[in-house]
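Comment on the following before class.
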Amino acid sequence: MFTKKGDTAVLAKLSGAPAPYAEIGERLHNIIRESAPSLEPIVRWGLPFYVKDGKDVCYIKPDKDFITFGFGEVVNPTREEDAHMHPVAWTITSLDDATEDRIRALVKKAAA
């Protein structure tokens, strides 16, 4: 498996998405890096991942009609005790302040 590391590799991958998803991907990248600077950005399997201690914390998956933002199942900040289902990914078609704040909070919790 070929892995590219660093912000430059991740931003290059995200820039290949169609508008407006390239811009949304770049904004998500910045939110993740600002919220959890300890996470290492890498491109693996053709997707931007953010890892800590070798574990996938979150990822961004660009598509032609949306962008997906998700968490690894091992480090999932949405897990609720006694719940039978746990969200791990969301399709995003635009970002607003409330959505950005929610993403920031989830990333901080997952990276802690």
User: Anything to note?
Assistant: The longest strand covers residues 55-62. The CA atoms of residues 27 and 95 lie 9 Å apart. The first helix runs from residue 7 to 15.
